[in-house]
């Protein structure tokens, strides 16, 4: 899919102020979550054939999960508010000769894409939103996912010791956020891989079915 398809360039630039602005993290170097490959937990989903239909990688960073989906022949889109990350993702797609689309987009404005997705991947985005922003994010997901679609999320777990990095998320918080319009199919212990010590941090792998 070419970059010219989908929202116009002017629409693509439309953003609301982000809870966290990660642009500087990509512009000044390689952030610790940018491991240069798909997270193992999501790679396993792909290997099990669980990525289906149109795939959205929300908060895609430099695009490894959207590129993974594209390598499987799936219609893959990645969105991120950090323009530097999207530039890198587009370069990767060109170099790997993969047909993935990447858009500069605010994850709190997903309905404005005017599109529908069968599988949504979220690696490390949900846990950056403050409580007040979570309903808008979940509402946006619900509006862009038809009944039967699936949302897979990796987020920091409250089982990770210490207080460094993003806020920890409890299972109760996840269930409360996705109480309406979703069925929780699983919340399983997993790991998020990073480029810095300790290189692997405790996470939840969440599987949700859009009802």
Measure the end-to-end span. 29 Å
Low-confidence stretches: 1-6, 8-20
The topology string of helices and strands comes to HHHEHEHEEHEHEE
Overall average pLDDT: 89
How many DSSP E strands?
Answer: 7
Percent of residues in helices comes to 25-40%
How do the strands of the widest beta sheet line up side by side? 3-2-1-4-5-7-6
Shape: globular
Strand content: 15-25%
State the major sheet.
7 strands, mixed
Structural class: alpha/beta
Gyration radius (Cα, Å) is: 16 Å
Number of helices: 7
Structural account:
Residues 1-6 and 8-20 have low confidence and may be disordered. Strand 2, helix 5 (83-96) and strand 3 form a beta-alpha-beta unit. This protein has helices spanning 9-12, 23-27, 40-47, 64-71, 83-96, 134-144, 171-177, and strands at residues 54-58, 75-80, 100-104, 119-123, 150-156, 182-193, 200-210. It has 211 residues and is an alpha/beta fold.
Provide a quick synopsis of the model:
With 211 residues, the chain is α/β, with parallel strands linked by helices.
List the helices and strands and how they pair.
Blueprint: H1 9-12, H2 23-27, H3 40-47, E1 54-58, H4 64-71, E2 75-80, H5 83-96, E3 100-104, E4 119-123, H6 134-144, E5 150-156, H7 171-177, E6 182-193, E7 200-210
Parallel strand pairs: 1-2, 1-4, 2-3, 4-5
Antiparallel strand pairs: 5-7, 6-7
Keywords:
globular, alpha/beta, 211 residues, 7 strands, disordered N terminus, 24% strand, single chain, 7-stranded mixed beta sheet
